[in-house]
Fold this sequence. Notes:
This protein is mainly β. The chain has helices spanning 48-59, 216-219, 224-230, 324-331; strands spanning 4-6, 9-19, 22-31, 37-47, 65-80, 88-102, 109-119, 122-132, 135-144, 150-156, 160-169, 172-182, 185-194, 202-212, 233-245, 253-265, 268-270, 272-280, 283-293, 296-305, 313-320. It has a 21-stranded antiparallel beta sheet that branches.
Amino acid sequence: GELTFDNSGIRSDKFNADILGIPVKAQFKLQDFKNPFLDINIAATLSLDTAQGILKDKFKFIIPASVKGNASLVLNILGNVPIKENLQLSGYLGFISAFVKPDKFAFPLEDINGRINFSQDSFSWEALNFKYSGASYKTSGSLTDFNSPNVNFALNSNDLNLNSNFTVKKNFVSLSNLKGKYFNSEFSLYGDIDTSAPDRTQANLKGELNLEAGDLSKLFAKFRSQIEKANAQGKLNAQFNLNGDINDFKSCVLEAKISTGQFNAYGLKREKLFINYNQADGIIDIPVISLSLYGGTADIAAKVNLASQHIPYWATLNMQGLNLEKLKTDTGARNN
């Protein structure tokens, strides 16, 4: 490249170099010889698999994924010379039809396009597009403070809208908010997760679910045929508090209240449903399952011992005022 210098400093508006086998273009300025200040701008086009190999071979940094495609890198470096801790880094990495297959993912992220902006203590992304399992997604978000990361995250597709904010302090995750909509069902979750113990994941979570029955076959595709036979219709609301080791669900303390308006399944028309669910010390206690249907009511109470090998249970049922003729009509039992 060409260098220009005078009493105020040295500069180059076009400087070509080869760094670790990657061609780069650069501009730089070194100002004030008495108190030297360096300003460098670097641009390069990276082959992602080549960059992954450099990270592994030169820096012993292993990315647990298969990567392909290209990315454009722009890097700005500012700082006093000799370089000290106050070095300022910023720039962006722009993905161009990239492919990433994380080792623990069932499917790869394909056709990744978009930009990730970064500095020495944060990075952010906006309108980053990709495909996963045939569906198109768009994501945006930010991460600040690498020592105690605070993450804002949004993910959108035709069927999913998801927003989340959480903070990580060593082994402790504080989930301020996780809200979303999947098809016509909505959910929210917040609380804390502690992974400091190697043999347990301690959680204290609160959440709410507003489930549209028509979404069940989409949410649980493996059971689609059974769900479609039920022909469930209506909406369900569930509010819950969960505390305990989520790796051992039986030991968790769980309180949940589930309710519906009119909710139909297997031909039965339920006008109202309310369930009070409590779980502690391996015992499920359901003091109330209340149904209003066919002009009458059905009240159920039950207990289940999850801690016992054979999982014993007991239940009581009290039914009053049901119109059996309407029940027979809806269930196809007219001749019985």
